[in-house]
Amino acid sequence: MTKKAGMVTHPDGEVKKYAVIGNPIKHSLSPVMHTAAFRALGVNATYEALEVENLSRAYDYLKENYAGINVTIPHKETIVELLDEKEMAADLIGAVNCVKFGRKAMGFNTDLHGAISALKDVVPHLREKNILVLGAGGAARAIIFGCLMEGANVTIYNRTVRKAEALAKEIGEKMKDIEVQRRPDPVGFDILINATSAGMYPKVDETPLTSGIPSNMVVMDIVYNPLETRLLRKAKEAGARTISGLEMFVRQGAESLRIWGYDPPVSLMREVVTKELMKND
Ligand code: NAP
């Protein structure tokens, strides 16, 4: 296990330790966002990025030394089996991105909360809305379950079609049938959500969708680096309303803080991450 970010040390009192674990992890913006939040709250806590290769080996150390962790690629699914308890949504999704350690280790999926909260700011009622989700990875799973819990109808498209079919089968068995597209076609949908990595820095010229975007759609991209992806730029040009991945990122982080018992300074968190991302422009 390698520490990739500096710790903020506090002169007195018990320091609560938090971290994000993943591999690779050095580009994560979570340490900057959470450290700023702890400072603003005056909380005696640290937040590091830990590069973890073998989660089973690192788990006991994490449980003993940290009050909570965020979990990212490739450990979101593997950690589920190691935890003592999971909230219902995390259990359903089969992925955890936030853990609260205590007498028991409890897992949560704050990606779901972050995505749905960002979406509902623009479309308050998702019931019966027709949503096309691009992607069949970990983030797509959380978003699809979140949309179905809100009563929306979901269709998915993924570059590797068999993965989309496998995910649709699993979701159909656990919750509700969803359709699978063989080519991404947003026509007739109310909302389009990109939950793939296409367009992410440094491959900013990539886009998960080459066909035109209807002007009456809402388009959300969960990629947050760059702040405005090629997909979002095209959607804006077409007259569609857009939601950037920054909103999901900040809100999943804010929800993690709530789970750990803090009142998140959301505006400050958004400001700090925006400033970091602007450095890439
Ligand atoms: P993942 O499990 O590795 O899944 C990646 C998905 O992207 C797969 O469906 C993959 O398709 C697809 N994909 C990758 N490159 C592509 C390309 N060039 N064209 C089309 N599809 C492509 O990753 P994940 O955890 O779901 O994360 C996906 C993205 O969401 C990442 O960029 C991540 O940074 C972002 N994310 C953002 C937030 C946020 O808070 N805003 C939270 C979580 C994740 P195949 O199956 O065909 O490989």
Question: How would you portray this structure in words?
Answer:
With 281 residues, this protein is of the alpha/beta class. The protein folds into two domains: 2-108, Rossmann fold; 112-244, Rossmann fold. Helices cover 37% and strands 19% of the residues. It is built from nine helices and 13 strands. The protein has helices at residues 30-41, 55-65, 88-93, 110-122, 138-149, 161-174, 230-237, 245-259, 266-278; strands at 2-3, 16-22, 45-51, 68-71, 85-86, 98-101, 105-108, 130-134, 153-157, 179-180, 191-194, 218-221, 241-243. The strands form two sheets. It has a seven-stranded mixed β-sheet with strand order 1-3-2-4-6-7-5. The protein has a six-stranded parallel β-sheet with strand order 10-9-8-11-12-13, sandwiched between helices. It is globular, with a radius of gyration of 19 Å. The protein binds NADP nicotinamide-adenine-dinucleotide phosphate (NAP).
Provide a short characterization of the protein structure.
The chain has 281 residues and is of the alpha/beta class. Helix 1 (30-41) packs antiparallel against helix 9 and helix 4 crosses helix 8.
Number of domains: 2
Structural class determined from secondary elements: alpha/beta
Q: What overall form do the CA principal axes indicate? A: globular
Strand order of the largest sheet: 1-3-2-4-6-7-5
Q: At the fourth CATH level, what is the homologous superfamily of the largest domain?
A: NAD(P)-binding Rossmann-like Domain
Question: What is the arithmetic mean of pLDDT?
Answer: 94
How far apart are the termini? Answer: 31 Å
Listed once per kind, the bound small molecules are: NADP nicotinamide-adenine-dinucleotide phosphate
